Structures are given as structure tokens and as C-alpha cells.
Amino acid sequence: MSLISNKVSRAILPASALIGLLVIVAYMAGMFDEVVTAGTKPIPQAYQGEEYVVSESAVVHHEVVNANVTAKVNTLVASRLLAQLKSLNVRAGQSVSAGELLAEIDDADLQARASQVKAQQDALAVQLKQARKQLERSETLQSQGLVAVNVVDEWRAKVNELQAQHQALAQQLEGALVALSDTQILAPIDGTVVERLQEPGAMLTPGTPIVALYNPAQLQVTAAVREQQASHLQLSEKLKIHIPASGMTQYATVSEIVPVADSNARRFMVKLDIELANNVKPGMYAQLYLPEKPRMHVLIPRQLIKRYGQLTMVEVVEQRQLHKRFIRLGQVIDNQVEVLAGLEAGEILAVR
């Protein structure tokens, strides 16, 4: 009995496979489709909705130029004395206020010099006081005819000499006190420390830089611009800039156009003042947008565009019927998009 069942099963399997294959072929041949009478087509309904007429508008394209953020005000704080750096109180990146103590220079020699001059001045003051008393006494005796005129003249000359010496010492003391004040290095501006250029213990000479500062409230964008573009720029003109690291986009004012910054590449250095912005620091990469001559392009509202993955399309109304058409887009301008290919002025789009 089992032998007969096995034979039946072997016979049914090929037959089932053949029947299934015939069904698939029949389906692909359209035998199960609804039969449409020859010469008749379904009539699509005419579009009755709102329409938008495509038109051209003047579009300003921009040439994007690589640029950098720089500090408009950079200051090197230097020593005025020949002495040793005693202490340095700031670090790179630290914010400082004008008048804040940045560093101190060893003032032992200057203190000794000031003390010496002060002592000489005090001693000379005593001599001058005695000479003036002696001059008064001589003048009194000379009026009584008790001393010669030349004695009075000698004491008058002595007083004048001591006065001159006293005045010279006063100037020396003033210079010593000024030098002592120079041992306190103060911040000349409100700013941020860029770099420590010396360390405590270093021997300084007049003019040796100690600290580099910049003012974060006064920043610029600098860019090398082709001479054809630079020739059209004007001072005080406002141009669009973008700083990717901070996400900032604003309009900056052209403040300088430096002639022939690179004679080989025929480029000019253009500097633009920017407003104070958060998280913007010197050295950041920036982009400068230089406007070109306006050109006529097709612009359509963004809401009329449909997207399928990476493809974009619109619905065009032709003879009251809707047709899908793929288009290639350009830049976004406010709430409109520039169409580079696929549409022409005068065509009608469906709004729905």
C-alpha cells in the first residue's frame, strides 16, 4: 500500500509544477487582465485646480572666495628696560582688561638708583639752604659796607650752582621713578592673550616682546580676491560672509583694499570689518561671497517641488492634463528655488 502511495506522490509533483508554470505564463500574457474593447481608452479628467505660470527673474550669483578671520587690533606688549623678567601673570587664551597687571620686571637696581639719587638730593638741599643763608648774611654786611661786593657775588654764584645741581638731581629722581613704574607691565587694551613670548627669569632688553594680545571686539575677514573682482569693490561696501565653524552668516563692511598682495597671481587683499560674534576667533576659516552680474533664471516656489529620493520634479499642466517632469535645481533664494533645467518661462504648473 505504501509503495502505491509513493508512486502516486511522484506522479503528482511534476504535474503540479507544470500546472503552476502554465498559470504564470498565462498571467504574463495578460489572459487574466480586463478586456478593453478595441478603439476605446479611459478618458483622464481635466485639471481644474490652481495654476502657477513660470516666469524668469534676475538672479545674482556669487563667487565664493576662501578667507580667514583675523584680529584688526593686535598688540605686542614689550619691555622698556634692560632687566630680568620677575613674573608673568597671564596665560594664552586669558581675557584681560586695560590697565590689568600682566608682568613684573626685577626692580632692585632701579630701587637702589632711586634711593641714591634721593640721598644726594637731600644732602644737596642742606648745602643749598646754608648757602642761601650765607648769601643773605653777606648781602646784609655788604649794605653796611663791612664786606666787599665780590664776596656777595661769590655766594650768589654758589647758590645758583647748588640750585642747578639740585634741579638736575630732581630730574634724575623723576627718571628713576618713571623707570620703576615701567617694571609694572600693564595691559594697554581690553583683549585676549594670544601667546606668552617670554617666561620668568628671562633677560629682557628694551623692545623685547613679552605678551601678544588681540581685541576680540574688533575682528576682520581677509581674502585674496582676483583683480577683476577687486576692481568692482568699493570701500564701505557690504558683502556677505560665512564662518562655517561658528555657523555665523552676516554682512561685513569693506575697510581696506590692499594693492597687489600677490603680483604673480594678480590678487588683491580685501579686508572686511565684522561685528562682534560669539565663538568667532582669529584663524578661523571663512567664506566671502562676491556678487556677479545678475542673470535671468527661472524661479519657482519651493512648495511646488516634489522629491523622490535624490530626484526633484513638478507637475506641468499641458492641455488641461497633468504631466510629471523632472527638473534640476540651483540655489535657494528666499522662498523660491532656481531651476537650471527642465522648465521654461510661460509653462504652467499645478498648485496642489
TrEMBL record:
Q: Which residues form a coiled coil?
A: 114-179
Origin: domain of life: Bacteria
Give the transmembrane region(s).
Answer: 12-32
What Gene Ontology cellular component terms go with this record? efflux pump complex
Q: Which UniProt keywords apply?
A: Coiled coil, Membrane, Transmembrane, Transmembrane helix
Sequence ranges assigned to domain Multidrug resistance protein MdtA-like barrel-sandwich hybrid in this UniProt record: 77-209
Pfam families in the cross-refs:
Beta-barrel_RND_2 (PF25954), BSH_RND (PF25917)
Q: Name one GO molecular function term.
A: efflux transmembrane transporter activity
Q: Please report the stretch or stretches of sequence annotated as the CusB-like beta-barrel domain.
A: 221-290
Name the family the entry cites.
Belongs to the membrane fusion protein (MFP) (TC 8.A.1) family.
Question: What NCBIfam families does its record include?
Answer: RND_mfp
Listed name of the protein: Efflux transporter periplasmic adaptor subunit
Query: Which lineage?
Result: Bacteria, Pseudomonadati, Pseudomonadota, Gammaproteobacteria, Alteromonadales
